Amino acid sequence: MEQIVTKEQSKSADESVLNLFWAVLKRDLMLAYRKKSDLFNPLIFFLMVATLFPLGVSPEPDFLAEVAPGVVWVAALLATLLSMDSLFRSDFEDGTLEQTLLSPQPLFIVVLAKVLAHWMMSGLPLTLLAPLLGVMLFLPAEGMSGLMMSLLLGTPTLSLIGAIGAALTVGLRKGGVLISLLVLPLYIPVLIFGTSAVQAAVTGLPLAGFFALLGAMLALGFVMAPLAISAALRISVSG
Amino acid sequence: MSTSLVQVENLFCERDERVLFEDLSFTASAGEVIQVEGQNGSGKTTLLRILSGLSNNFEGDIFWKGQPVADVRDDFFRELLYFGHHPGVKAVLTPEENLQWYAAMHPGVDGGLINGALDKVGLCGYEDSPCHTLSAGQNRRVSLARLYLSHAKLWILDEPFTAIDKKGVAEKEQLMLDHADRGGCVIFTTHHELAIGENIRRLNLDELAGT
Amino acid sequence: MSEKKKWLPRWFYQLASPRWSYDIMGKLLPGFALVALISLVVGTIWALLYAPADYQQGNSFRIIYIHVPSAILAQSCYMLMAVAGAIGLIWKMKVADMVAKSCAPIGATMAILALATGAIWGKPTWGSWWVWDARLTSMLILLFLYLGVVALHSAIESEATAAQSAAVLALVGLVNIPIIKYSVDWWNTLHQPATFKLTERPAMAPEMWMPLLVMVIGFYCFFAVSLMMRTRNEILIRERRSSWVKELVGKQ
């Protein structure tokens, strides 16, 4: 008898966690939808950075094809970083972040939902836009699938790590530059394996190992980052 | 005898090199309406933020129903309604969406009462306009509508009457007294002269805070 | 809090008192300073005059007697900073916060020293001041991590908040350091197969590594001295309104 009760309780607890996740996700997506400029700015930035390289270095197709994986990845990384500052800032400014922290609901889930929403608004469109940049930079067609897959696996990790920086700096008036300083060194492993995956795809080497590594980093970020983000948010709001 | 809800012992807090309070101890019981008083900068807001659990830059002990508040945080948050300087209203969402989000975050809140609550704070007809089209006072009313939704026992309200008109203030005062009568507890600050003055317990930080 | 008190030794709680820490560090300082002085002087003379020259690199290899200790210290200092930060976070211990804060600039200096000596060493060995060697690159990233912690600390006005935020960042960095190291090593082998490695040498002769050991000990003691001095300073600044600090300053 008792067991049944606990099972039902745990079931209802699971449901309420799921409901919470959806409610937060839906709200953040709705907010982004109603403020569309925030949605497009990182994408435009992504395109512009990729345009700078041929202009600044050389429009030679062979050269561009060689640097394309790195350029697209660095541009994606910077675009993600650019969008990071707004993740918690508006919530902090209008007081909804306070209400979030005062909720009996698990902050872990709330944070995860917010980061997922952010990724759907930044990392996912960046991934979808990446082939266009690949074409602009003469990336061989064999590299496209590797580029998209590596971005698909890598950008969520970028969002998770970036969110730690955003949470740490949310209480500061000027968080933008500081976030880059805090977060960029932590992005290096993702950059290394992401670019290498694309290069491997171009040269026809097996890709599974790279995706496994990117996936492992994502899994680690998925488990650890929300803890750091939650702690950082409590500290920032408390200060 | 009424039961004690919040018990504060030897609270010490300093901010920017200045001691705000030292050895501050008091108890807030069910059925009480407590106004925290003090000059500007005496630490009223800081005290309310500490009590609500938002700020942890303090030394001393806070108990919720006799247990250290850090140990029973979820229970405490379940029974807490906090109203801060920022009303916690998203500008691009409508009043209804804002309250629905609040209901999702706080399981104790009954989402079905939202329309009624908006009626009661005089926002009937504004349910579907985004909050940035509303006035400052109306935005704060959206947040105050939570008072009608929540089953929370402890209300911590920081300047709830700012930008609220006279009629609204009178209603909220009555609401606070009713809440206390139902066994709740209200801790609040305000710069308004209140009509319910004699029913309120006052906590003056200038007198209590030793130095 | 009460259960925790049972299993932690008493000195741990005494450490929480800034005054006690200040006094105990004051007593430990001269000893460490003496050991640091002796081992640094002995190690330097030994390393420069008596250790044999490298059969490949000649005398230029002698810079490892500074390069290696500073690199080791830069890494262990980060560890200490993160651990102290964690203690400060969990037990709200002010002194641990101050230790963590004092670690950051020292560690950053050590990382800069390791990078500078690496560059100086690189010139005769590789013919250029900078090579994207795995160790040097990891050290550069470690320096960036330090700079991030320092920048965050100085950006936040409230001391308590700054300490907590920096501690979270340091812990995140600590988790990431092995991943960064692994990825940089891997990246390095991919792009520069079979370059000459700086420090991975087949079994150093004892007369070469003995002075190195002395230098490492000297660096550690020097680090301890500088950390304690910084922390004592920090304690005085943070506790300047307390009566014992006023008394102390009044006496001098």
Summarize the structure.
Chain A is mainly α. Chain A has 10 helices and no strands.
What does this structure look like?
- The complex is a heterotrimer of chains A (239), B (211) and C (252).
- Chain A has one domain.
- Helices cover 87% and strands 0% of the residues of chain A.
- Chain A is built from ten helices and no strands.
- In chain A, helix 1 (2-34) packs parallel to helix 6, helix 2 packs parallel to helix 7 and helix 6 (107-121) packs across helix 8 (142-169).
- Chain A is globular and about 60 Å long.
- Residues 1-5 of chain A have low confidence and may be disordered.
- Chain B is an alpha/beta fold.
- Helices cover 31% and strands 26% of the residues of chain B.
- In chain B, helix 7 (166-181) links the parallel strand 7 and strand 8 (185-189).
- Chain C has helices spanning 2-7, 10-15, 18-50, 64-91, 94-126, 134-155, 159-191, 206-238, 243-251.
- In chain C, helix 3 (18-50) packs antiparallel against helix 8, helix 5 (94-126) runs antiparallel to helix 6 and helix 5 (94-126) runs parallel beside helix 7 (159-191).
- Chain C starts with a helix and ends with a helix.
- Classes of the chains: A mainly alpha (239), B alpha/beta (211), C mainly alpha (252).
- Chains in contact: A-B, A-C, B-C.
- Chain A binds chain C through residues 164, 168-169, 171-172, 178, 181-182, 184-186, 188-189, 192-193, 196, 217, 220, 224, 228, 231-232, 235-236, 238-239, and chain C through 89, 141, 144-145, 147-148, 151-152, 155-156, 158, 160-161, 164-165, 168-169, 171-173, 175-176, 179-180, 182-184, 186-187, 190.
